[in-house]
Amino acid sequence: MDVMTAILTRRSEQKLAGPAPSPEEFRYLLKAASCAPDHGMLRPWRWLLMSGDSRDALAAALAEDNGKSLEAMRAKTRRAPLLATLVFSPDPVSPVPEWEQMAAVSAMTTSLMLLLHARGFGSIWRTGAQLDAEPVRKLLDLDQPERALGWLYIGTVEPGRPTRRRQAPDVGDRLKIFSPV
């Protein structure tokens, strides 16, 4: 799949089944995604991969934080066969400002989602206040100034699901050819 097709056809997929990429395939795709723009080549991120029963520890931390049932939280953490947590690990002593480090993480994540799509996998990015909940921070072993930015649910789009398409928006009002007066 060429880059233009990947960008125009990638969608957040709500329903994901197996298979998901293996840890080796995820690493291969992540290596390519890490070629995204990154001032200072700091790689201010890390991924934590959860599959199978390892997702239950996250479900327990979520239930501890929000008081909902463990079963309800298991249903959340098992929406896809692979749950990847993105951790932002900024370098506080780098001359590269934190906002640029965050931009690098965003570029890498976008590239990864496009690469997953090009390989036939679906994904959806989920966020929420619980990313910063103390039980979740403790489980993920986050040190200051690290923070979890989101969960990337990864798998294969369930067969027979209708393909959702959207038209590329008109961006004419977002573009101006600059000319000094």
From TrEMBL:
Its cofactor is FMN. Its EC number is 1.-.-.-. It is an enzyme of class 1 (oxidoreductase). Pfam families: Nitroreductase. CDD domains: YdjA-like (cd02135). SUPFAM superfamilies: FMN-dependent nitroreductase-like. Binds 1 FMN per subunit. One of its GO terms (molecular function) is oxidoreductase activity. Gene3D superfamilies: NADH Oxidase. Keywords: Flavoprotein, FMN, NAD, NADP, Oxidoreductase. Coiled coil: none annotated. Residues 7-155 form the Nitroreductase domain. FMN binds at R10, R11, S12, H39, W125, R126, T127. Belongs to the nitroreductase family. This is Putative NAD(P)H nitroreductase. It comes from Streptomyces himastatinicus ATCC 53653.
